[in-house]
Known about the structure:
Elements: E1 5-9, H1 14-26, E2 32-38, H2 44-57, E3 61-65, H3 77-84, H4 96-110, E4 115-118, E5 137-140, H5 150-157, H6 162-170, H7 176-182, H8 192-215, H9 239-249, E6 260-266, E7 269-275, H10 290-299, H11 301-310, H12 323-326, H13 329-346, H14 352-360
Parallel strand pairs: 1-2, 1-4, 2-3, 4-5
Antiparallel strand pairs: 6-7
Amino acid sequence: MAEVKHILGISGGKDSAALSIYMSEKFPSLDIEYYTSDTGRELDETYALIERLESKLGKRIFKLDAVDLTNIADQSAFDHFLNMYGGYLPSSTSRWCTKKLKLDPFESYIGDSPTISYVGIRGDEDRDGYISKKQSVQSIFPFRRNIWSEDVNKLVLANKNKSNFISKLKSIGDYTQFESMAQNDITPTFTLKQKLNALLDLDTILYNKVVFALLKETDYPVGKLDYFPLVENDENLVRDDIFAILENSGVGIPAYYKPMEYHVEIDGEIKTGTYSRSRSGCFFCFYQQKIEWVWLYETHNELFLKAMEYEKAGYSWMDSETLEELAKPERIANIKKEHFLRMNRNNQNKSWQDQIMEAEGEGCVSCFI
């Protein structure tokens, strides 16, 4: 192989953790570097998961620090940048935490070396996540039937590149039915996505081989390799597969995913519901639902109080209320009641894993994968 770096980021969530296990077991020939971006404000459960993964993988997971705190006492990386921003808390409209604590350290870590970044987006998700703007970095999605990023598919399936695609196809092997589909132009009524899916339906591995051959004519990092084992992979892993990988490996899912009981009075009766966290990331993540803030208050009270302290500068984690207001007993009871009624109305026949997936929603692209 050419000198290409292979990396995989561990966010502390289920998907990236499962991907690290999957890659180490299925593609042991790849010398993958594992890393995590340490904000200093993660849950203890996240650090515990990383320790278990290091034991399972038999490799160190490098911690990327956003800033050198050697001579800065009593501060985390998050606190350092919060001071730089004058106490202005990050939010969904100003995610400086993502850039400063996750993306910038990642870009610095990979430098300018040709790099393949393995990303834990599942086959039941329709997104690409964060794609580095560096041309030296290429994202690969091993859990998906379509392992290639959108820019690669656009390049190889472009109408102007059709003859080259067919030429590479003919040099590989049995291609008759595949060629017929490949000859179709992309049009407003036959989109790139439709053509891609049609080719993958016919023969995923053959499509991968053609893409690999075409990438050898480009500067994409995969094209610099003599052999890329994921070309032979046509698996499509979804949510249940992820949980199975974690449980079967002995690593287990992050503890904060597991539901815990709460009790709430509704119409004079005590009802029992369950709550948990739906994502990895900082304990004060502004993408948390109200019930997740209640979970934090009742299961990690010292962290909730720490998150409350950050609001003293006049900024709050939520647009609608402060944590001090949310922590009032009557407000907590109301949040639990609303959550219990919603869950029992919508999720009577759904497992807790299903409910976690539905609760994820939008999140930090670097913390969520």
